[in-house]
Design brief:
80% helix, globular, 413 residues, 20 helices, mainly alpha
Length: 413
Amino acid sequence: MATTYWQDKQTARTNSFWDAGHRPTLIAAFLYFDLAFMVWVLLGPLAPEIAKTLALSPAQKGLMVATPTLAGAILRVVNGLLVDRIGPKRSGAISQVIVMGGLFSAWAMGVNSFGGTLALGVILGFAGASFAIALPLASRWYPAEHQGKAMGIAGMGNSGTVLASLFAPMLAKIFGWNAVLGLACIPLAIVFVIYLVLAKDAPGAPAPKSVVAYLQPLKTADAWWLMGFYAVTFGGFVGLAASLPIYFTDQFGLTTITAGYCTAACVFAGSLIRPLGGALADRIGGVKTLSVVYVAAAAALAGVSIAPSVQSALALFVVAMLALGAGNGAVFQLVPQRFREEIGVMTGLVGMAGGVGGFYLASSLGFAKQLTGSYQSGFLIFAGLAVVALIGISVAKGKWRRTWEAAAAGVRI
């Protein structure tokens, strides 16, 4: 009797995660993703200084830090298609060259207007779109039972946002914020060389398809469910990472450096737990993990809306980021179980949804501040979206467990 892909993988289950795939590629994917995320959110830590120089309004600040998120969301679909056509390694190399060239040009010519910040944000979107490259690069090397861990480790590259929050404000204070754009090219170039040496495309990649065929997953409800769930988890994570430096300086009058430290603490929590969220999803299933995630995130963000002090706000943001980071890992435990053959384009589509969620949160906080004088409504609406996602996962889980091939083969979902 013919066996399915998942039955074959379950039969040949590998005991050790580290022996199951290609470690150099996993390391390369992590480093590439880490530095790409560092520059993707670079405008967030620099926003208070840029806003002073260019006299930006709260709404303009929100749009400035949200633009790279939206650009990254759109470009993730492009990268997802590119990965399945020319392979993740070459796709990643092209993207890195574009980002380094854009940052170098912005440093050399200067950014002197609000429109200039938006143009730079579009270029930085190529860094955010690395998501649709780094994750398939790692994922294709690992069997089903290790997908949560592999995707979690590669995805932990979102810890690059910690580097931006820690070092960008300090460097801006010493050299000026425009110089930070040029300085960022140095670590990017180093990682680019390491990436070229270590990364290797996995054998047995799916054959290229037509563009129409790539978008076939969008005809299934499962694709839209997964996109919606990631819009909340990753959207919340990256939206907060980009907005917190502005929030802490505006709400509590912190210096840019202190606000950077607070942001780094929050982002570090969310980044560190991503692989743990993936590993937990491997053990108990992505559905159960996400159910807990949405409850915790909704409660924490609702609490932030009425936090009376920087200490209480910081504690609640850490809880929210822990929940959202674990949720990021859990969603990407589920994606390859349902869309193994379309992992490249689905990574792009799901990642795009996450970017759209981040754009909404970052921009809405700016508009909430300008229209009402407070960030409260922005946080409450996003907490409500987490509750909607909780209801959604409760609706979808029954069908998934009955119909997914991976579930029939014994993989926890």
